[in-house]
């Protein structure tokens, strides 16, 4: 993901969005021969915003499948987006 310029008082934005990145990643996984969950998690976690990766890695039980990583990343991003909306 590429960091977009930050607007004062707002959280960093990335392009593509997390849902777009996840969809592109899933498509690339489908076309690849990589099926090792740890390798896929490593690649996926390296491409998401660092704060999101740290949030997932600090969970009591860290997801062990790539599909669980997708779900948690989108879940936390959605929560942050909603919190930002409420704060405004």
Care to describe what's here?
By secondary structure, the protein is mainly alpha-helical. 62% of the residues lie in helices and 5% in strands. The longest helix has 22 residues. It is globular, with a radius of gyration of 14 Å.
Gap from first CA to last CA: 25 Å
Q: Choose one word for the global shape.
A: globular
Name the structural class.
mainly alpha
Low-confidence stretches: none
Features:
62% helix; single chain; 88 residues; two-stranded antiparallel sheet; mainly alpha
SSE layout:
Elements: E1 2-3, E2 14-15, H1 18-31, H2 37-47, H3 50-57, H4 66-87
Antiparallel strand pairs: 1-2
Helix pairs in contact: 3-4
Offer a concise description of the structure.
The protein is mainly alpha-helical and 88 residues long. It has one domain. Helix content is 62%, strand content 5%.
């Amino acid at each position: 993901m590429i960091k977009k310029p930050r607007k004062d008082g707002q959280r960093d934005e990335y392009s593509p969005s997390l849902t777009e990145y996840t969809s592109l990643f899933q498509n690339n996984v489908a076309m690849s021969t990589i099926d090792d969950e740890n390798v896929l998690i490593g690649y996926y976690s390296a491409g998401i915003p660092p704060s999101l990766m740290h949030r997932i890695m600090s969970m009591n039980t860290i997801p062990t499948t790539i599909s669980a990583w997708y779900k948690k990343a989108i879940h936390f991003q959605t929560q942050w987006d909603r919190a930002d909306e409420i704060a405004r």
